């Protein structure tokens, strides 16, 4: 999956991002080589909104770059040419108070540049923001919580958290995903740089955005509007699946929680302790909505909104003391005894 | 001796104090009760430099925590307080007071007046501002409230609703934040009124509006802008307190309030605020660049017009901070256009400064070095500003480190550089002694290098998707080394500022005697002694041009022959 994610970048994009890369690499030698998944780099887009933003960026960079070279060059040249030299006499240079022609020229030229920049920008704003929603689009409602993401697929009857699954959208088979953005508490912002610009999740103010990832893979992002203590660990992942993978995932997520007699003890702990106040598991009595839905917890790669990998050890540590991964997370330490924790973790790991 | 016959012994002790103690107290008393514009100006600047050091330490704490992923130097709670306090302090307790301090000291001198129009309002404004600062920092002690909650504001300097609501921010930290801004805001309003009244009614004979030094013009425009912008901020803080204590629902989204309304109020203050800070800095550059290029400012009327133009347009651009909140496409396009329009008068200013340098005899003294740093960095800041005004690109860059880089380019690269230039330029006038040129050059070069290491790099980590306000980050995003570089640059800047602080103290006692006019300058303040006496000018000056001292020094070739 990672390999595809790196491979797929269109050639033009790669060449262009190479430029930025070169400059940044001078400053941070291994900047790009660090992670297994790579950077959420805005210069490596893979979705129509992010692509058109990047094309617009190149246009703006070219214009601003031109201005920088011209004005900066004139400034540097003037500083060298007109520096005071040791051989100079005491006399003052010629006093020039202004020049109408020159001043009109450097007022009119910027006005023309602004007109061009504005028209180009406006075109892209309308193209992205007012794009008509196709029939085949997938709807997902994203609800921001302190400090995790809730995803609801209203037409599919699925509720999940933190890891968004969407189908790939190709030129032959377009299948964009439209996100309806809500917040349960404070302001958040949904940002996966390779897929689209960010849009805020604001209580009492529903927003919408769309993505159409062109290749399968995992795309990283995180909350981009300060939302409280653990804003930094409100991470998110978007899994872009092939149509078949996505259909299979949907099928799996529609099932109620796994019922396995071998972990009945853990389920009993879950249902009789405070867990059910906040968490839901379909097919059990747990209906809480304050925390993430755990019906298919074991199908997710991470826990705690990406703060830790989903392993039995981490689950155990998380249940015993959420502050270990996320100091300030709203889940309290559950004060269970060792046997209860063992049973509970055993149960949770069966929730595929 | 004390009167032994009084019934309550010791309450009326009239024993003379020890002489030296009396002198110290008298000296202190003199500063506390002063209404002299120069002393108040110095108080503002000293107060701001103190908070500059405090907020600088906060910045270094932030950078230490971010130097590598997963560090535990600061807890998330403390980190959030640090960046909130850093931002609030730098804007309200450093930027505005130091620039109004410059205005206080210089405006009357530059227009040939003996004091500000309202000296007692002036003192009142300073002490309000100072009290606002104390209130903000008292939150470290008083913020706990009955809840034992966090002890300093931790909601960001923008304090977006509803995070500031009682439900999400219990304790009193947010209250101290709001109250501090209300109180210092009133101080700022007082000074703004004073500057406007002074420039409009206290100018000496011959000083028409179009002969005022550009610094005075820019302070006039800034003050007008301040009157307009501080008002919505104060209103918003009062609404916030009503929400928190009187059961209001302005921003209470759980009860139908609007988070967006807070953003509008905050940014209709917040964006013009940037110009409130940057225009006095423009004023400093417009004084320093001509003197060290040995040429009159190029296109004076255009500079004045551009300043007024920037102020006017800046009132209609605030929602470019809100491109991601879900405005309509037409709304977004409107704010794209208005924001880009600011670029035109700003461009005119940059071109005029370059044209002033063009054909001059440039003296690379420390004030000029800082102004040249400003010019170069402000050019870049303006261009990254254009990039951010492009709404679709802003959807990517907003709240990323690119934005942090952009506004530090404005606030540090442009404003702080010019503040340093101003201090090196006018310190001789204020103290009668020159700042050390050698230490000044060390300060300049280290600060310049540190600045670029830190803030140039921030642009790139923003491109790589790093959002602001995060206390730590994942090690697999490609941000690690860039952040280390950014933090190292911060340390270099810290060293430079320490050299500066040492220079200020050392030169006060050991600096070279300055004389009245050490830079061979042209505006009226250089005609007064250094430091100027309480009354500034023994006789009211009369001027015939924008550069009265040029006319005096070049009777054969005076400015008034050429000025329209």
Q: Can you put this structure into words, describing what you see?
A:
The complex is a heterodimer of chains A (352) and B (564). With 352 residues, chain A is of the alpha+beta class. Chain A is built from nine helices and twelve strands. In chain A, helix 6 crosses helix 9 and helix 8 packs across helix 9. Chain A is elongated and about 95 Å long. Chain A starts with a helix and ends with a helix. By secondary structure, chain B is an all-alpha fold. The interface between A and B is large, with 105 and 105 residues.
Give a summary of the structure in a few sentences:
The complex is a heterodimer of chains A (352) and B (564). In chain A, 38% of the residues lie in helices and 16% in strands.
Q: What is the element layout, followed by pairings?
A:
The complex is a heterodimer of chains A (352) and B (564).
Chain A: H1 2-7, H2 11-27, H3 48-81, H4 100-129, E1 138-145, E2 148-153, E3 158-161, E4 163-167, E5 177-183, E6 188-190, E7 199-201, E8 207-211, E9 217-222, E10 235-241, H5 243-254, H6 264-272, H7 275-278, E11 302-303, E12 308-309, H8 312-320, H9 338-348
Parallel strand pairs in A: 1-5, 4-10
Antiparallel strand pairs in A: 1-2, 2-3, 5-8, 6-7, 9-10, 11-12
Helix pairs in contact in A: 3-4, 6-9, 8-9
Chain B: H1 19-33, H2 37-66, H3 76-110, H4 119-142, H5 173-201, H6 214-245, H7 259-293, H8 300-314, H9 329-357, H10 366-389, H11 391-397, H12 401-431, H13 437-463, H14 480-510, H15 548-553
Helix pairs in contact in B: 2-3, 2-4, 2-14, 3-4, 3-5, 3-7, 3-12, 4-5, 5-6, 6-7, 6-8, 7-8, 7-10, 7-12, 8-9, 9-10, 10-12, 10-13, 12-13, 13-14
